[in-house]
Specification:
mainly alpha; two-stranded parallel sheet; 8 helices; 56% helix
Amino acid sequence: MTEGMKAIRAYNGTEESMRAFLKTIVWNKNLITDELVKLRNDCANRPGAEAARKTFQEGQQRLTKDPNLRLKFDLRHTLPKLTIPTICIWGEDDGFAPVALGRQLETMLPNIKFHYVANAGHQVQNDQPQLVAKLMMDFLAS
């Protein structure tokens, strides 16, 4: 249970809890402005969002508790066969999905190029926008 996961589970619809969550996924804390917090919180509270979060949490609980359901959605044997041109950009300072998870996935996805970005959290595109843009443009040009 990472700090990011704890923060998303503690989200209660307030700007304060949104700010706490953003602090776990953004490496450069200077990017977490009042405007960003309000924008993200407004989006998280748009019509239907709360019901969608509840449905997602119920599904996660079912997946965790039901071994047959978990087995049905286990992709560990399928992932190595993935050949669709893809890149994965992962922040080295990700407080939601740690870089160790990325390195573990990388072994299951031998046909996918992984890029680990320093000074970046879960939202690499916010922390390192120029680098992400270059990686994307290089990938799309290849």
